[in-house]
Design goal:
Keywords: Ligase, Membrane, Transmembrane, Transmembrane helix. The chain has 513 residues and is an alpha/beta fold. The chain is built from 17 helices and 27 strands. The strands form six sheets. A nine-stranded mixed β-sheet has the order 2-1-11-10-12-13-14-15-16, with helices on both faces.
């Protein structure tokens, strides 16, 4: 495919030409125009060059959601350096691993995260830290973002990244061992943006709600870069809590596109939404990603927002990240939709041979969005990308219309007493119980090396239910071999930054008990 830009500086410049005075970022009472964003990004880009950041250098970003995140990202990429957005919820040792793995030379960091970041310069190759929100003390190694913004020299932009150049590195949470750095190019990202732009009918007047973490590939591509691709706007909300503030900002700032994860839509489907929000909001599309939506969540949401379109999609960091999404014109409940335009998908067996329509197979993807590989992990890259096809590790069925239905993660498959059990089927049933807020099902080995099914359930606040009642419900709706041997009621289930339940953590906790 042909893309309109080679890099993000070209994209930002084009947006300035189309909508220079238009607002690109709404943040509290602050409004940032496209011209202002470009000017600030250029100032910070020049500042980076002044502290010896060169083309191809890795620049880490441990930055909370803020205009500074956006400015820093465009500044880094403008000079051909590589941005490394890092999960702000990590702990000291995890930051240390990532910084050493990518060999980051400079790091942008929010001052509020200084406790976990303290001492990293001694354990990594970091030369300088640029603090956002102030510094404890300004030295030649601890710098202030305010000084970068005030820098008056012009950046040297004579060497610009090309379409196949590396734009950023996204570290996947992984299921075992250390996280892996997915190498994402400008082509990868423009492929995603162009497809989403077409599928969602994005317009210059669209305003995107941004409250999920910007370091996440889903938010960064679909809620930060896509609005700029369309010369539109984004509305930054500091936190998803209290959720009433998210709705308030959506209403006051006339948001049109809302991106969330299943936990958000589950809460919205159950919450009391003010009548005036339902009447006066301008939201035309709700997008869900990060994990499958339970059928009950979709039903509850539709009942609450009958005129809204809730489109479930699917992706993974290694695919920049969007692979498929339901369409405004046609949706199928329980499906993650059709592949983006031009994307090839197949459901295959262990030998990578395509299985017949409707049969379960591993989803593989081939398109311009497939990452270049994993940083410093050639073997893992070779196992994941075979002849240009990305092995997703997800088990799916594909119907005659091309719609993809996620059955389960391949590694989550439970084989109990010789029977294949898909945890999602049990979880779907658990979500139908009124008192259940969240649920996760895992397989744990027993003394005979078989797997037993174990369910973890988080109840809604001020609601109660007995384990025997849950088991009775499951027995009414599922085959006996699918009913968990153990059901554990938990005050809270462990989640990652995007709200996905961490089954790996649950399994570790269970095995220790």
């Amino acid at each position: 495919m042909n893309y309109p830009y080679q890099n993000f500086y070209e994209m930002l410049s084009a947006a300035c030409n189309q909508n220079g005075r238009g607002v690109v970022v709404y943040h509290d009472k602050e409004k940032i125009s496209y011209r202002e964003l470009k000017r600030k990004a250029e100032a910070v880009a020049a500042y980076l060059q002044s502290i010896d950041v060169k083309y191809g250098d890795k620049v880490a970003m441990v930055v909370s959601n803020s205009p500074e995140f956006i400015i820093s990202y465009f500044a880094i990429t403008a000079i051909g350096a590589v941005a490394v957005p890092v999960n702000t919820f990590l702990k000291h040792e995890e930051f240390e691993y990532i910084l050493n793995d990518c060999q980051a030379k400079v790091m942008f960091a929010s001052i509020g995260l200084s406790k976990e970041l303290k001492g990293l310069k001694k354990k990594t190759r970091l030369e300088k830290v640029i603090w956002i929100g102030g510094t404890e003390q300004s030295t030649d190694r601890h710098l202030s973002f305010a000084d970068a913004l005030a820098f008056t020299e012009e950046p040297d932009l004579s060497r610009q990244p090309q379409i196949d150049s590396l734009a950023h590195i996204i570290y996947t949470s992984g299921t075992t061992g250390h996280p892996k750095g997915a190498l994402i190019s400008y082509k990868n990202l423009f492929s995603n943006m162009a497809g989403a732009h077409e599928v969602f009918h994005v317009r210059k007047k669209d305003r995107f709600m941004v409250f999920l973490p910007m370091f996440h590939s889903f938010t960064l591509t679909a809620m930060v870069l896509l609005p700029v691709f369309a010369a539109g706007s984004m509305i930054l909300v500091k936190s998803v809590f209290p959720f009433s503030n998210v709705l308030k900002q959506a209403l006051l700032k006339r948001a049109t596109v809302f991106l969330g994860v299943p936990a958000i839509y589950t809460a919205m489907g159950k919450a009391k939404i003010p009548w005036y929000f339902r009447w006066f909001n301008r939201l035309r599309i709700f997008i869900s990603g990060g994990a499958p939506l339970a059928a009950q969540t979709i039903a509850d949401f539709k009942a609450k927002f009958p005129s809204a379109e809730l489109l479930e999609g699917y992706g993974l960091s290694e695919c920049s990240p969007v692979v498929a999404v339901n369409r405004l014109e046609k949706q199928k409940v329980g499906s993650v939709g059709l592949p983006l335009p031009g994307y090839q998908v197949k459901a295959v067996d262990e030998e990578l041979v395509e299985v017949p329509l409707g049969e379960v197979g591993e989803l593989i993807v081939k398109c311009d969005a497939v990452m270049q590989g994993y940083l410093n992990m050639p073997e893992a890259t070779g196992e994941t990308i075979v002849n240009g096809w990305l092995k997703t590790g997800d088990l799916v069925t594909i119907d005659s219309d091309g719609f993809i239905f996620i059955v389960d993660r391949k590694k989550d498959l439970i084989i109990s007493k010789g029977q294949n059990v898909y945890p999602r089927e049990i979880e779907e049933e658990l979500y139908k119980i009124e008192a259940v807020e969240a649920a996760a099902v895992i397989g744990v080995p027993d003394q005979y090396a078989d797997e037993e099914i174990v369910a973890f359930v988080q109840l809604k606040e001020n609601m109660s239910i007995k384990e025997t009642e849950i088991r009775a419900h499951l027995r009414r709706h599922l085959a006996n071999f699918k009913v968990p041997k153990e059901i554990h009621l938990k005050d809270e289930l462990p989640r990652n930054a995007t709200g996905k339940v961490l089954k790996r953590v649950l399994k570790q906790q269970f095995m220790k008990e």
